[in-house]
């Protein structure tokens, strides 16, 4: 455990000098926060509150990008090789990555919640305990996804391509950019197989419906199982040197980690429960004045 803590501390120091990680973990999330709050919500507290789920999801989901790029860069530059000579296990390296992510991402989440109150005058945040439980699960699971990407890619160019594909799916097919209930039916059905959809849904349930975390057991279990599978696979495939070869079916193993959401997606496509709840939350959040007849004061 001491080794993991020391590695995490070292990684935080190095990461704070990494422009790419800082962009995806702080600059971009804060830009999205003000874009959503000032442009999309037009500064209205009720609308900002509704958008808090997507805003926080951008902050948490983006962690996979910086983490995967950092590990691949370290491998190409021979930094990981030096750690191996210490000697340090792959599990310690991976565990320290997730631990460092907590220290780097949680302050941004707290800052966004604070600014929601002081800048946009949001006074109701729902169940904050559930929000932070979801954020912790999200940092772990999306960080583990970044570790898997770093484990199965060989070059920085390949890592960037895969990251762009994953990021596109996470922000456009899950309700992060456009509410899930407003997306075309086909996109909704595809989105129900993606982890980001359930993460955003859980955050909105916590903020808008005051949901306690044990009522989101399916979401938390799926995120936790996905994180566990991804963590084990990345530890198994972890490479210290760029010359090390991957097993032929490594990328298929990486796809297999999404199995919990495959089952959840099939269930939700069959029952429609999540979509019904998402639609109800969107309708309930509409400002009351918009439903008032025009001839009434």
Number of separate strands: 0
- The assigned structural class equals mainly alpha
Structure annotation, total helices:
14
- Mean pLDDT figure: 88
Give the SSE string: HHHHHHHHHHHHHH
Helix content: over 70%
Commentary on this structure:
This protein is mainly alpha-helical and 297 residues long. The protein is 73% helix and 0% strand. The chain has one domain (2-286). The chain is built from 14 helices and no strands. Helix 3 (45-61) runs parallel beside helix 7 (128-152), helix 4 (63-76) runs parallel beside helix 7 (128-152) and helix 7 packs parallel to helix 11 (217-237). The longest helix is centred in the middle third of the chain and has 29 residues, at 90-118. Mean pLDDT is 88; it is low at 288-297.
Keywords:
mainly alpha, disordered C terminus
Question: Would you kindly provide a brief summary of this structure?
Answer:
The protein contains 14 helices and no strands. The chain has helices at residues 2-15, 19-40, 45-61, 63-76, 79-84, 90-118, 128-152, 156-172, 185-191, 195-208, 217-237, 250-256, 259-271, 273-284.
Per-chain topology:
Blueprint: H1 2-15, H2 19-40, H3 45-61, H4 63-76, H5 79-84, H6 90-118, H7 128-152, H8 156-172, H9 185-191, H10 195-208, H11 217-237, H12 250-256, H13 259-271, H14 273-284
